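User: Predict structure, ligand 6-aminohexanamide.
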Amino acid sequence: MSRTLDTRPARDGFRMPAEFEPHDGCWLLWPERTDNWRLGAKPAQAAFVQVAAAIAASEPVTVGVSQRQYANARSALPPAVRVVELSSNDCWMRDVGPTFVVDARGRRRGVDWRFNAWGGLEGGLYWPWDLDDAVAQKVCEIEGADRYRAPCVLEGGAIHADGQGTLLTTEECLLNPNRNPGLTREEIERLLADHLGIETVIWLGRGVYRDETDGHVDNLACFAAPGVVCLTWTDDRSDPQYEISRDAHERLASARDARGRRFEIHKLVQPGPLYMTDEEAAGVDHVDGTEPRRGGNRLAGSYVNFYVANRHVVMPLLDRKRDARAAAVLKRAFPKREVVGVPAREILLGGGNIHCITQQVPRPRELRSGRAAPRRRR
Ligand code: KQY
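Assistant: Predicted complex:
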């Protein structure tokens, strides 16, 4: 059972844990829409299977899939992966799934943000998005987690938390008039405080160049540990990403987190630059009302778009010339985890990457005893 609560998480004693804290599992959705995924979504499905298998080596994985694709997904995914029928408009679980919050009594609840397909009718990426907007409630129901329906539009990819009161985001996304036009910066900070237990918001400027989400932070920067941040980077001053990353670096270098710490910053060289080929663009169906894919489009590739599983960091492989250098940086940033690469160009062609297609289910812990709470307690 999952109750809908009309209180606020922080007042109830809940906080958003960091992704690097322990998980009870991870959720994904299955790609199938042919106006986003080329060649009937077959290459993307193969990539999602590899991502699910890599995460399943660390923690239980559940994949939500439409009735139409159920049998296909079930046969393609490893037996250890749970497959459940779940309607959605596309497959970006980070953005449409709940943001789980935990408390010191060992309880877990979900925050269900409003979703408008990254901008609604003002630059959003598709219509309708009603099935996506219902995903978080259904995940909470299956997880047996009570749910807060938040009064604002927000996607999970737009925020990263350190679990100790600090949150990273971008002005390009959270202050974009196509998300919450009636809200000021201060009002958004108050909503993040009330729903996630955030005390300090670190505002970065723009997200990765040509990111169609309006600059989600999860493609630009993330926490590797409290006080430790990974940032996508290029040394090429003529590249449009240079000024974006330089500005983010400057803001991070002059910021303090909620505990007063300065940030240690790990620069992750960007892949490429990468571009869609004519052949790749030709494999995507054109439909009225959505921006057609075109050969030569710059892709918003970034090694920051990885998933932190219990024992592994699952990173996107995007560029043979840069993958090993990025993996080495991640090994330094996550010394206790094994870094595993998954070929991820097919996910990037759809507009995001491994972090965007995953959503962790944090393991609540009772602070008094330090013991892990039994699963399914609310
Ligand atoms: O990156 C994401 N979080 C979502 C990207 C959506 C792209 C839809 N074409």
